[in-house]
Amino acid sequence: MRALVALVLFGTMLALNAQDKVRTLHFVPWFGDHALRLNTDEKLSDGTTVRITTFRFYAGIPVVNGDGQANLLPYDYQLVDAEDTASWAVSMPRSAPPYFLLGVDSLTNVSGAFGGELDPIKGMYWAWNSGYINLKLDGTSPASPYPSHAFELHLGGYLPPNATAQRVMLPGHGSDEVVVRVDILPLLEAADVRTKCNVMSPGEAAVRLSRLAATMFRTDVER
In sequence order, what DSSP letters do the residues of 46-72 get, joined into one string? Predict the structure, then answer.
C-alpha cells in the first residue's frame, strides 16, 4: 500500500514538474528583410513609402489544466506591442500544444472587458462594438488617399461569418526558446495603402486580412 501511495505521489510530482516548465516565444516584428523600425520611412516592394506608427496584436496561449492537458478554452493573453520590447517574450507551458491564438476568442469577447492585458485602456477594445481588436497596424504614407495620409488596420470580430481569431501553428515548438519573426510586409501590401486602406470594423475585409495575418509568423526552423 505504501509503495502504491509513493508511486502515485511520484507521478504527481513529475506531472507538476512538467507543467512548471515553460518555453518562451520571442516575437520579433519584421519588415521584409529587416527588423521593423517604427516611425521611420520604409519601402514597399513597389517603392511606395510607408511609416508604421503602431503594430500590436494579442497572442492567446492555451491554458493547461491540472492533468497536463490543454483546454480548448480559455486562453492566457498577452498583448505584443512593437513599441514595447518587454512584451515580445511570451511564456507558454511545455505541455501546451504547438500553437497560439492570434486574437481573442469568442467566449472572452462576450464575457465583457477584462483587466490586465485585456484592459480596454490598452486601446485594443471597441467600446461601440463590445469586442476586442485582435491586431492593430497603423501608419502613414504619401500614397494614402486620405487628407492625413493615414492608414489604419484594426482587425477584429468574433461573430460568424466574420470571426477573425486565427490559430497559428509553431514549427520548432520543442525548443525552450523559440524566435518568431512577424513580417508585416505581406499584410500591408495586401491591404494596399494606395486605396482605401482603412479596416475599422468586423466584416469580409477583416476576415480576409486576418487569415493573411496568420501567415506572418515564421520560426527559426522555417527560415
Answer: TS-EEEEEEEEEEEEEEEE-TTS-EEE
**What is the H or E stretch that residue 206 is in?**
helix 204-213
Task: Name the 3-class secondary structure at 24.
Answer: strand
Q: What stretches of 141-220 adopt beta strand conformation (E)?
A: 150-156, 166-169, 177-183, 198-199, 217-219
Tell me the pLDDT tens digit for each residue of 158-178. 999 999 999 999 876 567 889
Cβ proximity of 157 and 130 under 8 Å: no
Percent of the chain with pLDDT over 90: 66
As a whole number, mean pLDDT of residues 47-59 equals: 97
CA–CA gap between residue 100 and residue 24 (Å, rounded): 12
180-196: pLDDT as tens digits: 999 999 999 999 988 87
Distances in Å between the Cα of 44 and the Cα atoms of 36, 48, 57, 183 are 13, 5, 21, 12
CA dist 102 and 81 (Å) reads 13
State the Cα–Cα distance between residues 142 and 152, nearest whole angstrom.
14
